[in-house]
Every structure is written in structure tokens, then in C-alpha cells.
Amino acid sequence: MNPTNLPMPDIDDPLTAEFWAAARDRRLVLPRCANCGYLEWPPEKVCPECQHTERTWQEHPAEGTLWSYAVYHRALDPAFADLIPYVVGLVELDAGPKFYGLMQDGEDTVRIGQRVVGVFEQASELVTFLRWKVVDDIADHPLSV
Ligand SMILES: [Zn+2]
């Protein structure tokens, strides 16, 4: 995969700029409502629970469970044509929210309920994507205790 050919996100969007800045440092941060504490992803302009607009960003482990996935056999964007077939996972983070992302594993490997870890993939000087990878054995995970 050549990630530099893929569409680039707007890393200056105030809703997600903190996320992209942390991803460059290979860290996952999520916004938490400064009023009610709701942890959300993706970020919205107002908290879906209390409509408050202020949030704090907190680091969380890029770890979770594969909640669902889809195997793409057609590229909805021509930039993804070389990746076909590719798997997009919906990961339920251990922190709570669900997070979409490209899986580094093929369709023969992924199964709902598997443990996954985030893999930060640098696409350019400014953009680092968060991808997901199945962890075959929880003991193999570097952050497991
Ligand atoms: Zn709130």
C-alpha cells in the first residue's frame, strides 16, 4: 500500500486537529465533554449528550475489539483501487467509542470479536493514519499485562 496516494484529511479542521496532531506522535486522543464527561468519536460541534461545546482531549490506548467489519470488493474512491479487496473495521475501543479504520489484515484473517491494536501509518510529513491490526494472541500484545 502506498498511503501517499490516498485522500488526505483536513488536519486543520478544529473538530479533529487535536486528533491528527496526536496521531503524528503515534498517540490516540479522544475528545471528552468538559461539562458531562461524555467520551465521543467522531467529534461533533456540540456534545450529543448535553449540547456543551467545550471538550478536553485525553490519550487512550489504541486497543479494542473488532465489533464489525466490511470487505470492499469495489473501490468507492479510485484512490483505493489498488487495495481491493480491503477490510474496513469498526473497532470498539476499550475506552468505549467505536472507531472506523482500514484493517491491515485481509478478509481471511478478520473475525468479529478479535482483539485489535492500532497501527500508526505515516502517510506524509503531516498526516499519520490510524490503522488496525488483529492481535492473534493477547499475550503477544506489547501493552498487555
Ligand atoms: Zn456533554
What does this 3D model show about the protein?
This protein is mainly beta. The protein folds into two domains: 52 residues, no CATH class; 84 residues, Beta Barrel (OB fold (Dihydrolipoamide Acetyltransferase, E2P)), CATH 2.40.50. The chain is 6% helix and 34% strand. A five-stranded antiparallel beta sheet has the order 5-4-3-6-7. The protein is globular, with a radius of gyration of 16 Å. The model has no long low-confidence stretch (mean pLDDT 91). The structure holds zinc ion. Zinc ion (ZN) binds next to loops.
What is the fold's blueprint, element by element?
Blueprint: H1 17-24, E1 28-33, E2 55-60, E3 63-72, E4 86-93, E5 98-102, E6 115-122, E7 128-134
Antiparallel strand pairs: 1-2, 3-4, 3-6, 4-5, 6-7
Zinc ion (ZN) binds near residues 38, 47, 49, 50 and 52.
Properties at a glance:
7 strands, binds zinc ion, 6% helix, two-stranded antiparallel sheet, 5-stranded antiparallel beta sheet, OB fold (Dihydrolipoamide Acetyltransferase, E2P), 145 residues, mainly beta
